[in-house]
Amino acid sequence: MSEGSTTRIPRPVADPLLPGLPAVGNAPVEPIPAVAKMPAPGPVAGHSLGIPVVMLLCVLVVVNVCIHIFAQRSQHYRLLAAIPRVPFRTPVLLLGNSLMEAGVDLDTFDSAWSGRRPGMPGMRAAFSLALGATSPVEHFLILSRALKRPIQPQFIVYGFFDDQLFSPVAGEWSDLEGNRALSYTFPAQAAELYAPGSWMKKGELMIIGSVPMLAERSMVWSRVELLRRRMEDMGMPPKTENRFGRVSDFSALEAGDEQAFNVRCETALAQAEFSRPVEKIVRLCQSQGARLVLVEMPMPKRHRELFYGAESWHRLQGRTGELAERQGLRYVRASDWVTQAAGFEDATHLSPEGAKLFSRLLADELRKISTQ
Amino acid sequence: MNLHNFKHLCEYLEGARDEPPSDIHPAGRRLLLSRLLRGVWWGILAAAMLLFCGQTSKFIYIDF
After folding, report:
1. Which residues of A touch B39 (CB under 8 A)?
2. Considering the entire predicted model, what is its pTM?
3. In the A/B pair of chains, how many CB contacts fall below 8 A?
């Protein structure tokens, strides 16, 4: 149809019995005027998407640059930045999650290890590579980054709790946030632990890792969460917090109940060896000539009575001991080293006082091991 | 601007309509139809959606 023509097209006449519906069959049709003129294209419909898309991409690039800069302040970036400062002759490297991070007072450890007074200048006896909210995969990645330098530690102390040495580690999109986003910094190594031999996983980690808005998304989420909590707390009694966050949150790290804990222990017992990342940690330590010491971290009385009294836990301890002995590792059962309630600040973490006690005992234990 | 136009404007900004309200100031309409600004606006929305879609019910270990 040419623009501006006034041709007429037939329209069915309405059925008198069914008003509103057109007649069917060979019913006569009445002509209706066609649109006389096509409307001029609107300001939106006719335009190319080029400029808006370019602008959208520019905004996303700016957001990514901002998040990348913001993420340099995150704990895992700060730890990676600190690794080149580990003195070559540091005798003890501490590895683990927030239990180890909170559990060792480096001054007290140093004093107990070397006999120096706390706070005296000089090289410390231990360097902490522990990072909160991480799994054995990240522990391996951190340790392998640290041992790329010619550090020759005498001991690598790996703090763990419950079935952490055996449980499989998930590395899906919803898992790798917060400090676990460290996996995106080492995509090839991390992919090999999450899904051995999978190019898909490696590609996924590489692609996500190259977009700060995706890899470091929880940097912004956590700030939104803080804002949400502040709003939630308005007019409500304050919730107990410690240096790690809300005290009640850390109960979520424990098994739901004794039965769930037993299931986890039985699952761990069904495995012939430690989980893949823990085995990698073991082999890495052996290749560097460092003694790996597996330390069952101190737990509050409630946790020990509820979970560590179970028969399945004792069998799991036995299995851990066997595997450790077979591979030439030391297994230190320190879960009952801190018995006072004041030694803990939540369901799992040692308080500063508890950390001092644990650090002193740990240094004594390592000195004993070094003389054996 | 009446409530109807305000709703229309919101629907345009959130992408439910292709056209901004017709009876607003011509300068405002030109601004809303600017391809440059539409790109910036949708860039901001895309970034905001991605960054604020965290699950607040799940425990998030916050780097204090």
Report:
1. 51-56, 58-59
2. 0.81
3. 96
